[in-house]
Amino acid sequence: MALHRSVLRPGSLGRGGRARPHRLGERLRELPGADPVTLGPIPVGAVTDPVFAEPWEAQAFALVVALHDRGLFSWSEWADALGAETRRTGRAADYAAWLATVEGLLAARGIADPDALADRRAAFARAAAATPHGEPILLANDPQHRG
Questions:
Q1: In 1-54, where does DSSP find H-type helix?
Q2: Which of 28, 52, 134, 139 is the 20 to 30 A CA-CA neighbour of 15?
Q3: 14-45: buried (b, 16+ CB within 10 Å) or exposed (e) per residue?
Q4: How many CA atoms within 13 Å lie on the side-chain side of 130?
Q5: Does residue 133 sit within a domain?
Q6: In-domain check, residue 17
Q7: Exposure pattern of 75-84 as b/e (b: 16+ CB <10 Å)?
Q8: For residue 60, what is the enclosing H or E element?
Q9: How far apart are CA 6 and CA 57, in angstroms?
Q10: What is the C-alpha to C-alpha distance for residues 144 and 56, in angstroms, rounded to an integer?
């Protein structure tokens, strides 16, 4: 993770402060100890390939990283909890499983009330059902919303 942060720090990969996948491999080869013979190209998708299928997936990913960075859990605790969630449900470790895992960790540590989480999930489902297609889902759209 430290390498990731240092390589992707603004300005570390050239002007503009943005990591460019086609240049990342070149910059990694410049690191001390990098063997140019065994360090092959870094696989990247087409420029148009999204990293996340939906914006909420990026938000779930960012939430997990932020909670880890604040010390809520270690990466090994996260992996154990995510693995337990996927075994419990029998589904893949997709971002829905990530959310369920975060909710479980928050509840287990007394940070979030499981009933409050269930209420929020139900409110979001009602808001989604009441939102016209193509519009953003807002909790204010929940017919039971108390604003």
A1: 2-7, 21-29
A2: 52
A3: eeeeebeeeebeebeeeeeeeeeeeeeeeeee
A4: 14
A5: yes
A6: no
A7: eeebeebbee
A8: helix 55-69
A9: 24
A10: 23
Q: Which residues of the chain fall below pLDDT 70?
A: 1-49, 147
How far is the C-alpha of 122 from the C-alpha of 135, rounded, in Å?
A: 19
The predicted structure's pLDDT at residue 56? 85
Q: How far apart are the first and last CA of the chain?
A: 41
Long-range contacts of 65-69 (CB under 8 A, 24+ apart): 67/102, 67/105
- Summarize pLDDT for 14-57 with one digit per residue, the tens: 444 444 444 544 555 555 555 555 545 555 566 666 778 888 89
Q: What span, in angstroms and rounded, lies between the C-alpha atoms of 40 and 64?
A: 30
Say what the pTM is.
0.60
Do 133 and 140 meet the contact criterion of CB atoms below 8 Å apart? no
Q: Are residues 63 and 101 in the same domain?
A: yes
| Token pair 């720090």: residue | 9
Structural domain containing residue 78: 51-112
